[in-house]
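quick q for whoever's on today - can somebody do inverse folding on this one?? i tried earlier but teh output was garbage lol. tokens:
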């Protein structure tokens, strides 16, 4: 009897972990997308990967609204991967060393 109760408690604890919104994954995805957007604005970047990242982030947000946290987590991870690819493509195309240095603002 105690074993069954223990198994039930463990199952509930496991379900509680799975059923949480993917807050960390969403924050990381948003940050990666923002960085890729800035790099694209400054250096061109890879628009295909950036568009995929933005779409995956939007799908993740929608999944959270629908309380489909597993789907939201997967989409957030995909958004981060696509944004990172976009940033890497931007760096390969326009390395930091060749980026123009902004002139100082006169006071």
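ok took a stab at it. sequence:
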């Amino acid at each position: 009897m105690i074993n069954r109760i223990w198994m039930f408690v463990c199952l509930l604890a496991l379900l509680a972990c799975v059923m949480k919104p993917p807050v960390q994954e969403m924050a990381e995805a948003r940050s990666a997308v923002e960085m890729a957007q800035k790099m694209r604005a400054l250096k061109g970047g890879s628009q295909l990967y950036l568009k995929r990242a933005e779409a995956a982030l939007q799908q993740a947000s929608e999944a959270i609204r629908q309380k489909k946290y597993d789907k939201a987590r997967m989409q957030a991870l995909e958004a981060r991967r696509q944004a990172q690819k976009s940033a890497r493509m931007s760096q390969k195309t326009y390395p930091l060393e060749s980026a123009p240095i902004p002139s100082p603002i006169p006071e």
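fwiw The first helix runs from residue 2 to 18. also The chain is about 75% helix and 0% strand. so keep that in mind when u check it
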